[in-house]
Amino acid sequence: MLTDKTKISSLRVAYGEAITELGKENADIVVLECDLSKSTQTIIFQKVFPERFFNMGIAEQDAVSTAAGFASAGKIPFISTFAIFASGRAWEQVRNSIAYPKFNVKVVGTHGGLTVGEDGASHQALEDICLMRALPNMTVIAPADSIEVKAAVKFAAEYKGPVYLRIPRPNLPELFDETEYKFDMKAHILREGKDLTIASYGETVIECLKCAEMLEQKGISAEVINVSTIKPLDEKTILQSIQKTGAIMTVENHSIIGGLGGAICEFLSETFPIPVKRIGVRDKFGQSGKAEDLMAKYGLTAEKFTDEALNLIKIKNK
Amino acid sequence: MEQTKKFNEEELRELETISKNLKKRALTMVYKAQSGHVGGAFSAIDLLLILYKKIMKLSPEWKTDEEWQKRDRFILSKGHASAALYSVLCEFGYFCPTEISGFRQLGSKLQGHPNNEYVPGVEVPTGSLGQGLSMANGIALALKLDKNPAKVFVLMGDGELQEGQVWEAAMTSNHYKLDNLIGIVDRNRLQIDGDTEKVMGLEPLADKWKAFGWEVIEINGHDYQEIYKAYKRASVLGSEKASPVVIIANTIKGKGVSFMENNAGWHGKAPSEEEFNKAVTELKSV
Question: What value of ipTM does the predicted structure carry?
Answer without folding.
Answer: 0.95
